[in-house]
Amino acid sequence: MDKNQMMERAEILVGAVDDLPTIPIVATKVLQLLDDPDVSVEEIADLMLSDQVMTARVMKLINSPVYKPTQEITSLKRALVYLGLRHVRELALTTSVINAFDGTTGALELNAFWEHSFGVGMVSKIIAQKIGYQDLEKAYISGIIHDLGEVFLSNFLRDPFMEVLEYIKTHQIKLVDAEAELLGTTHCEIGLSMARKWNFPDAYCEVIAYHHNPGEATIDPVLCAIVNLSDLFCTVRGLNYGGREWISFNLSDEEAWAILKNESPKLAELDIERFCYELDDAIPDVAELVTSMFSSTEKAKP
Ligand SMILES: [Fe+2]
Ligand SMILES: [Fe+2]
After folding, report:
1. Which helix (H) or strand (E) holds 115?
2. Could you tell me which residue, 200 or 34, shows the higher pLDDT?
3. Structural domain of residue 218, as residue ranges?
4. Ligand nearest to the CA of 186
5. What letter does residue 15 receive in the DSSP assignment?
6. End residue of a domain, out of 55, 71, 103
7. Is residue 210 within 8 Å of residue 224, measured between CB atoms?
8. pLDDT-derived band at 71, boundaries 50, 70, 90
9. Distance 188 CA to ligand 1 centre (A)
10. Distance 46 CA to ligand 1 centre (A)
């Protein structure tokens, strides 16, 4: 089945769901307001404060190991000043996506899903730093949202998706390939269809669509390659939906590695083993972050 057919199937599946979660109106307004060059921190803070859930999530994120403030930040306005307005757009997007799926029950445990997603976000940020990618925040956010399509499959195609998860237990096949084989589409096409509905910026749509084949990306192949490598790394390091997915990879054979080396030739001299140790350091932070973000809204899952 080719990519176009898989995309058509994804559009049909996403289109058929009446109660697809929506992005809250406040998030859309924040995104619009931030396009206004004269907007003030006060205006943005007032708007965000009207959504208590969003405010709570922003405060948790800002005090998480990802941002590491020297002392705890307790007011939203200070959080926005600390972050810079440029980053608020992304933060509004992420917190809204988390909220959209909060409390839903599907084939995947949400905690395992967000651990994978935030792990990929944090490792993406480190790789981005290493290669001198200019927008670290963008790399972080891209990692967080790259597998959104999985939540759709887990929630709205529960039984067929359970079969996919069973199938990869007994076959040495990647999750994305098993989806294509058994469902006729994958979380990449499904995620793209959702991201378009939610008016995500094009670069994010591309990461969602091409994080498993970054060589096909045209807008920002480097960003797709960063997320691809980070995804592989997190998967072999146990941030893999509760140990479900089989995977093996050799960094130097990966298309993404070639893309990044082209972007940053000094990568060729990198001691890969040491680099992996550095990435390993980020892994304990991930569990802590996810626990802190979900502790008030979700019971711990086994
Ligand atoms: Fe994926
Ligand atoms: Fe992933």
Report:
1. helix 110-131
2. 200
3. 106-302
4. 1
5. H
6. 103
7. yes
8. confident
9. 7
10. 36
